[in-house]
Amino acid sequence: MRSAGITLGLTALVAASLTGCSNDDDQPDYAAICVDPQTQERTDDGNCKDEREYHGSGAGFFWFYMATRGGGLVPPIGGRYNTGQGTFTTPSTRPGASGSPTIKRGGLDTKGGDIGKISRGGFGKAGKGGSGG
Question: DSSP H helical segments within the chain, as ranges?
């Protein structure tokens, strides 16, 4: 009877630790906000119709990719974003790891906030994800 109790206790402990790990796995590696590079302001996700990249010239709206584990802040719609906190190029590697990164395009809080408090929204891996519009 005593060994059965210990086994159940250990099983519960292992299950709890695995559940804790899976919460981290729900966090995408990168989150993208739709921006206007000309004004350096965040705009509504619906303005980003595709996944084209901004290369320093041209007008329009583009996805701006930010690492979710860097402690960055997402600006509110109409707010200015920090160009040093991300990139206009679709990330191809996971930060600090190998393999394809997970990316969430759009769907972040329109009022802004901590980028580390998001969960994977189902926009898939780089190169295979859908646009927010």
Answer: 2-25
Instruction: State how beta strands 30-36 and 103-105 pair.
Output: parallel
Backbone phi and psi for residue 47, each to the nearest 5 degrees, phi listed first:
-75, -20
pLDDT digits (tens, 9 = 90+) for 42-85: 999 999 988 889 988 888 999 999 999 877 889 999 999 999 99
Please, are residues 23 and 64 in contact by the beta-carbon 8 Å criterion?
no
Radius of gyration in angstroms for the set of CA atoms belonging to the chain, rounded to a whole number = 19
Residue 60 φ/ψ region, left for φ over 0, alpha for ψ in the -120 to 50 degree band, beta for the rest: left
Q: Which of 60, 73, 66, 82 is nearest to 112 (CA)?
A: 73
Q: What is the pTM of this model?
A: 0.69
Rounded Cα distance, 13 and 131, in Å:
40
**Measuring CA to CA, which residue among 37, 81, 31, 83 is closest to residue 60?**
37
* Residue ranges per structural domain of the chain: 32-117
